[in-house]
Amino acid sequence: MSQLSSKHLLGICDITEDDINLIFKTAENFKQVINRPIKKVPSLRDITIANVFFENSTRTKISFELAEKRLSADVVNFSSSNSSVKKGETLIDTVNNILAMKVDMVVMRHPAPGAHQFLSRHIDANIINAGDGTHEHPTQALLDAFSIRESLGDLKDKKIAIIGDILHSRVALSNIYCLQKLGAKVTVCGPPTLLPRHIRSLGVEVSHNLQETLEWCDCANMLRIQLERQEDKYFPSLREYSLQYGVTMPMLQNLKKEIILMHPGPINRGVEITSEVADSEQSIILNQVENGVAIRMAILYLLAGKQNS
Q1: Could you say which of 3.40.50.300, 3.40.50.1370, 3.10.350.10, 3.40.1280.10 is the CATH number of the domain covering 138-284?
Q2: Are the folds of 12-137+289-303 and 138-284 the same?
Q3: pLDDT digits (tens, 9 = 90+) for 179-207
Q4: What are the beta bridge partners of residue 185?
Q5: pLDDT at position 89, please?
Q6: Which residues make beta-bridge pairs with 205?
Q7: Domain boundaries of the chain, sorted by first residue
């Protein structure tokens, strides 16, 4: 297989295991490129990419911009994160603007689930989902799985725990889909109030006990408590949450095996994990950041139809 099965990256559900492996293989090559003295290649020199963000973003937006510039693409940025216009009006305006700019690819983050599917039906450009509400965040899942594979090898039968605010996390859903397609076993862990009611239907195990989950897993992916998405109070206090679900160095040292820790960021230090854990040798958080650029370069390159024959 030398090209992706889909014209867009709308979600992990829409791509195959072969697609994921092709993205990983391409990312390995680009990771070598970004570690060279000259980090730029002319692969997308004739491609124009629009980064359209209707929600605030730092890491994802910077990672995409860097990936695009490393590939020599022309980049157009516009942000509507402070806009309060209604979803339908916003997306139609977006469509018209993108069409007028003759853009080849669109990287979009939007608070409404399904916004990318709507956009893909109205414009001819390739669409990449950089996060849609609490639905999916496919590029984060791909870079997470790629990072785990670098540390643990083949993901088949590996035990991956996703811990924290599952209810409000688009990262969790995309990770579950991606890890399962690669044969990993997934357990979600958190307080009952932060786990969706339907979560078992996705084929994952459910735990409310952090210590037992850490003893079970090979890798723990710690999710941020997303207070900005929580209209109701889901736990008494951050301190109490941290006491029950925060990972500390003594916890890791008391395990019978060594596990790896990851976090999609931004980290609430002292809540999900302590600074000692975040900066430890068992943490692969900075690997995730580096791999994010390589994975996004691979996706842009493949969707642009620049794959080798």
Answers
A1: 3.40.50.1370
A2: yes
A3: 999 999 999 999 999 999 889 999 999 99
A4: 159
A5: 56
A6: 187
A7: 12-137+289-303, 138-284
d(CA 222, CA 225): 9
What's the predicted TM-score (pTM) here? 0.92
CATH code for the domain defined by 12-137+289-303 = 3.40.50.1370
For residue 57, the model assigns a pLDDT of 82
Give φ, ψ of 94 to 5 degrees. -60, -45
